[in-house]
Amino acid sequence: MHRVSPLDKQKGIQGSQFTTPRFTGLLEERQIRISMDGRGRWLDNVFIERLWRSMKYECVYLHAFETGSELRVGLTKWITHYNGQRPHAALAGRTPDEAYHDAPTPSGPGLTPDQRANSSAVRMAA
After folding, report:
1. Are residues 69 and 118 in the same domain?
2. Which of 43, 78, 110, 120 is the most buried (most CB within 10 A)?
3. Do 74 and 120 fall within a single domain?
């Protein structure tokens, strides 16, 4: 199966800065398809809203970050955990990294104890 790069199709770009020949020319030079029809944009928004909700409840609200640098480090750790260690029910117990790279789905019903332990936001925050 051929994987499409996240930049392969630029969806839902709006505004004059994104429709100028200067910008669209750069995309075309890199063979990035441009889609401005708005189809599928609502679905993109659902996934982003879920990501933001998880980030807020599992990282931001649990820590009293005092500086932008602390916030950057905390978010970097959380995103690394979210993509590489935290299993997702919608991905059949796989992490986003495993799903993207076509790793096999864990066998057996539900998540293994190790997967459940890795999905704990409290454990990740330590």
Report:
1. yes
2. 78
3. yes
